[in-house]
Write a structure and sequence with these properties.
Elements: H1 6-25, H2 30-53, H3 62-70, H4 80-91, H5 105-126
Length: 128
Amino acid sequence: MDTDKYNEWFIMAQKDLRSAKILFDHDADNEIVCFHCQQTLEKYLKGYLIAVTGELQEGHNLLKLCKKGMQHDNEFNQFLKDMAFVNAFYIETRYPALDPLVVSKEDTEECFRIVDRVLARIKELIGS
């Protein structure tokens, strides 16, 4: 059973972000780095939603989670395009495919920029 304590979601999100940075700094596959960025955003969004609603949200879709966030802070609408971008790295990077997703260094750096912007907004809204 997943916890409904938002700060614990933030702690787990930070682990994913730390992992992404370490992997990136050591030239790991960009696909795996972006997967960890997706996980970071998912956990931060779920933590934020727990903080403002008291309820744990189901699912992994960043767009859906972001839209739920918009119900409490309309400024989340600025992240919708970003969430669609990062959402691609949840499934496509985890399993072998006939036509695998290839992630560039620039796309990976964009994932980190998106994470930074979303985290800044969440911290602004509810603190660290």
